[in-house]
Amino acid sequence: MGLVKTGTHCITGRKVAVKIVNKEKLSESVLQKVEREIAIMKLIEHPNVLHLYDVYENKKYLYLLLEHVSGGELFDYLVRKGRLMAKEARKFFRQIISALDFCHAHNICHRDLKPENLLLDDRNNIKVADFGMASLQVEGSMLETSCGSPHYACPEVIRGEKYDGRKADVWSCGVILYALLVGALPFDDDNLRNLLEKVKKGIFHIPHFVPADCQNLLRAMIEVDPQKRLSLSEIFKHPWVADSSKTELELELPMAQVVQTYIIPSEENIDSDVFRHMTNLGCFKDKEKLVRELLSPRQL
């Protein structure tokens, strides 16, 4: 969506990717999706998430200044190399779940994880990108919108059920890990209906060359029942993930942030742009309730 050009940030001197979006050519729903992606990316700062430096706007165009990465998509890397050795696959996987853990700690679910949305920098480090399908999921709520690629979507999403976005992301990560180690997908079919049925059944074959402890991890992540599916905290503790040498990248822990609160005295003091971005995030559907919460002395 949009034209991408390379440029140089005048203040920092950094090379950046400039994504140019023509607002006039977008429907209202697609424009809201872009605004949601911008709002969510502004919330995330992690070494394995593609960084959004700045956003500029005029009547016709949006200009997104993004971190420039030169390694291309993980998908293309896999096509060139085929299946990866366990050590390299673990490095990529750990970086993916590190970024995902940070997102989940901030109530953000990606919902469209796949190798095409995982970029590589010049040092072959993962950068999670494309938050266009992402959503905020507040504690105790469930998501409803079915999204993502059929090959990487979990059974409950395909069945059109309400779902936990965190568990859906874990399933997708399991499929990605399988692809890294096997060089193929656990569920595949030229016929879309057959593919969806395979995903819903969750029956797949793991080749013998995949390490036994990793086979256990894959089956626990690509688990049809979301209640039995591993959580990210359990994945971090899994022997195959925890096994490392000094040469491997350490897991990044979510960065604790101290948030200063400010009591808004009246509805007129609510910033209209901030309010619009909050409603575009998707988890604040009742605008009148959101106004009441913002004016309340207690935290959201």
Automatic annotation (TrEMBL):
Cofactor(s) recorded in Swiss-Prot or TrEMBL: Mg(2+)
Pfam families to which the protein is assigned, alphabetical: Pkinase, UBA_BRSK
Residues forming the catalytic site: D112 (proton acceptor)
GO cellular component terms listed in the entry, alphabetical order: cytoplasm
Keyword Hydrolase: no
One Gene Ontology MF term: metal ion binding
The keyword Nucleotide-binding belongs to this UniProt entry's keyword annotation: yes
Residues noted as binding ATP in the record, renumbered to the chain: K19, E67
Annotated SMART domains: S_TKc (SM00220)
CDD domains: STKc_BRSK1_2 (cd14081)
Occurrences of domain Protein kinase (ranges): 1-241
Record-listed E.C. numbers: 2.7.11.1
Cross-referenced InterPro entries: BRSK1_2-like_UBA (IPR048622), Kinase-like_dom_sf (IPR011009), PIM1/2/3 (IPR017348), Prot_kinase_dom (IPR000719), Ser/Thr_kinase_AS (IPR008271)
Keyword terms of this UniProt record: ATP-binding, Kinase, Magnesium, Metal-binding, Neurogenesis, Nucleotide-binding, Serine/threonine-protein kinase, Transferase
Family matches, as PROSITE patterns: PROTEIN_KINASE_DOM, PROTEIN_KINASE_ST
Coiled-coil residue spans: none
Catalytic reactions of this protein: L-threonyl-[protein] + ATP = O-phospho-L-threonyl-[protein] + ADP + H(+); L-seryl-[protein] + ATP = O-phospho-L-seryl-[protein] + ADP + H(+)
Family from the record: Belongs to the protein kinase superfamily. CAMK Ser/Thr protein kinase family. SNF1 subfamily.
Identification of the protein by name: non-specific serine/threonine protein kinase
Organism: Setaria digitata
